[in-house]
Request: fold
Amino acid sequence: MAFSSGCRIGAPVAAILLLGLAAAASAQLSATFYDTSCPSALATIKSAVTAAVNSEPRMGASLLRLHFHDCFVQGCDASVLLNDTATFTGEQTAFPNRDSIRGFGVIDTAKAQVEAVCPQTVSCADILTVAARDSVVALGGPSYTVPLGRRDSTTASLSEANSDLPPPTSDLADLVGNFSRKGLSVTDMVALSGAHTIGQAECKNFRSRIYGESNIDAAFAASRQANCPQSSDGDKNLAPLDESTPDAFDNAYYVNMLSQQGLLHSDQQLFNGGSTDDLVSTYASDAAQFSADFAAAMVNMGNIGVLTGAQGEIRLICSKVN
Ligand code: HEM
Ligand SMILES: *[C@@H]1O[C@H](CO)[C@@H](O)[C@H](O)[C@H]1NC(C)=O
Ligand SMILES: *[C@@H]1O[C@H](CO)[C@@H](O)[C@H](O)[C@H]1NC(C)=O
Reply:
């Protein structure tokens, strides 16, 4: 490490140096990072992701969410991929993750294929970031260039996974605050929420909304209630986050908001008479603006807390430290 035990510096100086390193770290990401060391990396990841999404469209949603859950906990460092061991508890059993995040097998397959052509060169954190982009593209969403050069953590944080991933009961102010703490703007937050144009949610995560809230379309609530009983039966029953086009990455999520057909409480918060109403209306009517803002926001999210240079490691297997 840069600061060996023999190097004595005062705490304020160290803090300034560390801040400088953090800024430099994200500046070091580069779209061409593997161009020489592993020129086939991106094509290899893309083919693994495309095959998985073609055989199960929801997998694209699951991989996109896995990247989000990685980045909001310790930064985009593949910490979410680490399994528990006898001496270590990872993030996968955290409340927002348990029995809910998926896609590990696709990342493991992509990693094995990349390792076969470029041993210990491409990080799991980069593979997950690229897989999220390729998933969006496979489902018809915008493409964008992914800055690369992340390295993998040697630790994970169960407590941060429990505290830093916003729950679906969040109000608008909570969401704004939670994303701001990660350096993301209100526009980033609203655009990234458009990820809920694909994928599924479990009944337990929207039950209180479809039975208890008034800012919901009555016919929509009734149709969701049919497969999500008010008792605790059916906690795991699934419903699409976007009923109209659940497997297409489009701007329908925002169109749904306008008619109070957001599935999660947190979704409808973005269009509920508050400061983000105008942006939701814009995205509902202007798919190109949504695509541009989503792509930019994904790059911003992908920069959160990255490890670069000599930090961390390149894991050989994504589910365990070397
Ligand atoms: C704004 C705050 C957010 C909240 C409160 C939230 C909450 C949730 C919840 C509760 C689910 C359903 C999980 C389940 O029932 O198993 C879900 C699913 C999903 N979330 Fe979010 N989410 C948020 C932001 C995001 C972001 C930023 C992304 C990605 C950019 C994202 C992508 C997804 C996707 C794609 C799914 C479906 C996953 C699948 O079908 O496997 N979410 N989210
Ligand atoms: C998210 O927002 C809630 C409500 O404001 C707050 O209690 C929680 O601490 C926030 N979490 C983070 C990580 O900012
Ligand atoms: C991590 O857990 C998954 C699921 O149980 C398993 O398939 C995988 O082999 C585990 N990885 C390691 C390194 O044990």
In short: The radius of gyration is 20 Å. The pocket of protoporphyrin IX containing FE (ligand 1) is lined by residues 58, 61-62, 64-65, 68, 100, 102, 166-168, 170, 175, 192-193, 195-196, 198-202, 205, 241, 264, 266 (CB under 6 Å). The domain at 17-166 is CATH 1.10.520.10 (Peroxidase; domain 1). The chain is about 45% helix and 0% strand.
